[in-house]
Amino acid sequence: MDEQPVGFMTLNACIALYAGGRFGEISELYIRPDMRSRGIAAHLIVQAVTEGCARDWKRLEVGAPPFRRERGASLSIATTGLRKLARGSA
Fold first, then answer.
1. How many CB atoms neighbour CB 62 within 10 A?
2. Can you name the residues that pair with 25 across neighbouring β-strands?
3. For residue 31, what are the contacts with CB-CB under 8 A and spacing of at least 6?
4. 3-class DSSP state for residue 80?
């Protein structure tokens, strides 16, 4: 069995006026190419959403490096979306 990490996620606790207070940001999410398409990234995002709900974050943002943002790879999940994702209804 391969005991190497399959990926990682960086989850940051933030605070800002535009966000209405406390929120989270996923600044990095990487899954090894040979381990992709197995639901690992989705599992990590669900864990981030669960953590955000526990911390009463107003939103969860997903950042991307500048070259990715130009292609539209940015996402923000508002409070309602966090609650729905945490319940598994989104």
1. 17
2. 12, 61
3. 6, 7, 40, 41
4. helix
What is the β-pairing status of strands 59-62 and 21-31?
parallel
Q: How far is CA 66 from CA 19, 25, 26, 49, 63, in A?
A: 21, 16, 15, 24, 9
Please write the tens of the pLDDT for every residue from 2-27.
Answer: 789 999 999 999 999 998 999 999 99
Determine the Cα–Cα distance for residues 52 and 1; give it in Å rounded to an integer: 33
**pLDDT, tens only, 28-51:** 999 999 999 999 999 999 999 999
Torsional class of 18: left (φ above 0), alpha (ψ -120 to 50), beta (otherwise): alpha
The whole-number pLDDT of residue 15 equals 96
Q: Rounded to whole angstroms, what are the CA distances from 77 to 4, 35, 57, 85?
A: 31, 26, 10, 9
Domains of the chain by range and CATH?
7-87 (3.40.630.30)
